[in-house]
Structures are given as structure tokens and as C-alpha cells.
Design a protein that fits this description.
Strands 13-12-9-14-17-18-19-20 form an 8-stranded mixed β-sheet, with helices on both faces. The chain has a 6-stranded parallel β-sheet with strand order 3-2-1-4-5-6, sandwiched between helices. Strands 7-8 form a two-stranded antiparallel sheet. 35% of the residues lie in helices and 25% in strands. It is elongated, with a radius of gyration of 25 Å. By secondary structure, the protein is of the alpha/beta class. The chain has 2 domains: 3-173, Rossmann fold (3-Layer(aba) Sandwich); 182-384, 3-Layer(aba) Sandwich (Rossmann fold). Helix 5 (85-92) crosses helix 8, helix 9 packs across helix 10 and helix 10 (207-218) packs across helix 14 (368-384). It has helices at 17-26, 45-51, 58-63, 67-74, 85-92, 99-106, 119-123, 125-136, 162-173, 207-218, 246-257, 298-305, 321-331, 368-384, and strands spanning 3-8, 30-35, 55-56, 77-83, 112-115, 140-141, 145-148, 154-158, 182-187, 192-195, 198-200, 222-227, 239-242, 262-265, 272-274, 292-294, 310-317, 336-341, 350-356, 359-365. Strand 18 and strand 19 form a beta hairpin. Bound molecules: flavin mononucleotide. Flavin mononucleotide binds next to helix 5.
Length: 387
């Protein structure tokens, strides 16, 4: 169980941190919290003591003189959220005049720092210079967001969302064995329009592709996603290009193909599209026949054009999964194929087979995130054996 230490400082966004702690506990993390004396003016120690695995303030230090060392050694990840301009400035200058700042100095891994403040304060040369220096020291600055601030101004300075903060915690915990690799992932369902309001599509939610993208980012890769229609939240901190049709997806993928070292084609693209799209909404009639024509096979085209890329395909079949999978791996010139039974589409659970030229491996996980980790382990293993 990973251990997360959160330093809360005296900014108005301190009220959001109990919610973050609750979510981290729900995701099975151990969480301890340090409050600065100013943070205690915004939120009480009692709140955190109730929902976390330990909450500490200045007074606790008097009873336990080595508390700063103990907490620094305990933490796998140390997040400061919200980080005030004051605390950012003090960290940059090595000032250690409270429990939180002293624990920072006793911690020897990169910190996660999430500043939150009024826009003018955030843009000030003092704060910007301090943040720049902290980045140079390999600390991670979780950029604040644009929005309505507590001072009623609209601008940059809002604390990063809970989802982003948690994503960076996962980033900090994950090994970086995909460092500097360029990864292109397609996901979601394409839409083939019949008229301006109707289309042919499928049940793909995009969750598998988004999970693969998140894990790749956490492991150090530079990730680009090309997504059709999706019905789950987008992964934070990842560049996503949206497309509608299979033809649009093909065009976008080809634009980035030479850039990529690893290409994962997870999108559920439509094999067929209507031979024509009506420019006007089709009126109700007794009988309507749609003529469909074949869409381009993007994966097959990528297989033919393959140079340095490691190419991964997905196959969804209702029967003879392994047989069709093996055949597709060879026919489309893939390095790895993930074969899933039809019930995995749009579902939370995930099972299937990884098929490579070396053999077939079965997997079954309760979340697509776990499957994504497993698939990336396999890809990294195969890449490490490449000459
Ligand atoms: C109502 C109120 C809201 C504040 N909000 C912020 C804030 O959002 N960000 C910030 O950097 N400072 C904010 N401050 C100023 C800090 O509380 C002040 O700089 C303090 O010294 C921070 O101490 P600490 O960094 O040790 O917690 C606020 C002050 C008050 C009175």
C-alpha cells in the first residue's frame, strides 16, 4: 500500500484537500497530512485526523522532535497542495521555520507542488522565478488551472483538480521504463454519418485506450491520443485529438505515424460506412435501405508501411479468439495483438489474450487500468529484447 504525505498550506483551496484525502483512501493509499500554522486557520487538524492515517501540526513537533525525519522517511510521495506563494518561496530558499518546511528539507525525492493563488500573485516574477528554480531541481510543479478564483477574479491560479493531483501521484509512483519513447494511441468509437443527426457506431467507451495512455505517461513516455467518440473521462495531462469518422482517424494517424516509436490501435473503427451521407435529415418512410461501403483498413496499412515502429493491434471476436488473433497478427504485420472477447466492449472488467510471434498469454483483471499495466509490461519486455 503506497504512502502519500500531503502538506497543506494557508491558501483558501485548503478546503478541497479533505475530499482529495477521501478519494486517495478509497483508492487504497495510506495518507498522512501536515498542516502549516496558517493552514490551521482555514481547516482543522481534527478533520484530517478523522479521515486520514495521521494529521500533524506544529504542536505535535514539540512532543515528537524527530517527527520531520520520521514523516520524510515514511512517504513514498510528498505532495504540497495547495502550495501558497509564501511556502513556494520558502522551499526555494531552503527556509525551514515550520514542521512542513523542515520535512521538505528532510525528504530526498522530487516533490509534487500544486500552487494555488490569485492570478497576479501567480504571475509575479517572484513566484515564477521560484517555481522555475524548483523545476530545475527536478520537483514537479502541477500547474494551476484557469477559472473563477476565490477573490472573484477569473484567471490562472485555481488549484489543479483532484483528478490531476491523483494522476501526478500515480506518475510519481510508476517506474520510468518507457522514458523518452513516443507513443501514439487510438481509442473510442468512430461515427459514420447517415445524415446530419444519425450515425453508425459501436459500444467502445475509450476506457482501454485512455488507460493505456495514462500508464504510458506515468512510465515516462511522450503520449499522443487520437480519439473517436468516448464515454469515460479524458486522462489528464495528455494531448488528445478528436475525430469522428474512420477516414478522419486514418488521416490523423498517418500524420503522426513517422513520429511514433510505439503505435497502439485500440479504437473500434467502423468496417463500413454509408455509401452516401444525406446533407438533410432523412424523412420517415415505410422502408429505407442503407448501402454500406468498406472503410479503409488503417491497421493493415500501418503494417505495410511499418519501419521502426512497434505496432500493436486489438481484436474483438465472439468466437475462435486465439485462432483469428494469430491470423490477424501475421496478416497485418503486427508485433503484438490483444484479443478480447466481445463482452469486454464497454465493460469494466477485462480479460483476453496477448498474442505475439512468441506465443499466447491469457490475462484477466478487474480493471482496464490493471490490464493496461500488464500490456505495457509485455511491450517493454519485448522492446528490451530488440537488437
Ligand atoms: C483569506 C486568505 C486567503 C488566502 N489565500 C491564499 C492563497 O490562495 N494562496 C496564497 O498563496 N496565499 C494565500 N493567502 C496568504 C497566506 O495565507 C499567507 O501568505 C501565509 O503566510 C501563508 O502561510 P503558509 O505558507 O505557511 O501556510 C491567503 C490569506 C488569507 C487571509
Amino acid at each position: 500500500m503506497h504512502k502519500i504525505l500531503i502538506g497543506v498550506t494557508g491558501g483558501i483551496a485548503a478546503y478541497k484537500i479533505p475530499d482529495l484525502v477521501r478519494e486517495l483512501k478509497r483508492q487504497n493509499f495510506q495518507v498522512k497530512v501536515i498542516l502549516t500554522p496558517f493552514a490551521e486557520k482555514f481547516i482543522t487538524k481534527l478533520t484530517f485526523a478523522t479521515i486520514s492515517d495521521g494529521a500533524y501540526t506544529q504542536e505535535d513537533w514539540e512532543d515528537k522532535p524527530l517527527l520531520h525525519i520520521e514523516l520524510a522517511r515514511w512517504a513514498d510521495v510528498f505532495l504540497i497542495a495547495p502550495a501558497t506563494a509564501n511556502t513556494v518561496g520558502k522551499i526555494r530558499n531552503g527556509i525551514a521555520d515550520n514542521l512542513l518546511l523542515t520535512t521538505v528539507l528532510a525528504y530526498n525525492k522530487p516533490l509534487l507542488i500544486a500552487p494555488a493563488m490569485n492570478t497576479v500573485m501567480y504571475k509575479s516574477p517572484q513566484v515564477q522565478e521560484n517555481l522555475k528554480k524548483l523545476k530545475e531541481w527536478n520537483h514537479i510543479i502541477i500547474e494551476p488551472e484557469f477559472g473563477v478564483l476565490a477573490c472573484e477574479e477569473v484567471g490562472e491560479g485555481k488549484l489543479a483538480s483532484k483528478e490531476r493531483l491523483i494522476d501526478w501521484i500515480y506518475f510519481s509512483l510508476e517506474p520510468k521504463h518507457l522514458k523518452d519513447l513516443k507513443v501514439l494511441i487510438t481509442c473510442g468509437a468512430t461515427r459514420e454519418f447517415i445524415d446530419p443527426v444519425r450515425y453508425i457506431s459501436n459500444l467502445s467507451s475509450g476506457e482501454m485506450g485512455f488507460s493505456l495512455a495514462r500508464v504510458a505517461r506515468w512510465r515516462g513516455a511522450n503520449v499522443k491520443v487520437i480519439a473517436g467518440h468516448t464515454s469515460v473521462p479524458e486522462p489528464p495531462e495528455i494531448q488528445i485529438t478528436r475525430v469522428n469518422t474512420t477516414e478522419e482517424m486514418r488521416e490523423e494517424v498517418l500524420k503522426h505515424y513517422d513520429w511514433a516509436n510505439i503505435v497502439i490501435m485500440n479504437a473500434a473503427v467502423s468496417d463500413y460506412r454509408p455509401s452516401q451521407t444525406s446533407p438533410k435529415k432523412i424523412k420517415k418512410q415505410e422502408k429505407l435501405t442503407l448501402e454500406l461501403v468498406k472503410n479503409p483498413d488503417i491497421l493493415e496499412e500501418l503494417g505495410k508501411r511499418k519501419k521502426h515502429q512497434f505496432l500493436v493491434g486489438f481484436a474483438l471476436e465472439s468466437e475462435n479468439l486465439i485462432h483469428y488473433g494469430k491470423e490477424k497478427l501475421i496478416r497485418k504485420n503486427l508485433d503484438l495483438l490483444v484479443a478480447n472477447p466481445t463482452e469486454s466492449m464497454g465493460s469494466k472488467n477485462h480479460r483476453g489474450y496477448i498474442i505475439t510471434p512468441d506465443g499466447v498469454e491469457e490475462f484477466s483483471f478487474s480493471t482496464k487500468l490493471e490490464s493496461a499495466r500488464f500490456i505495457w509490461d509485455k511491450i517493454a519486455e519485448m522492446l528490451s529484447k530488440r537488437p
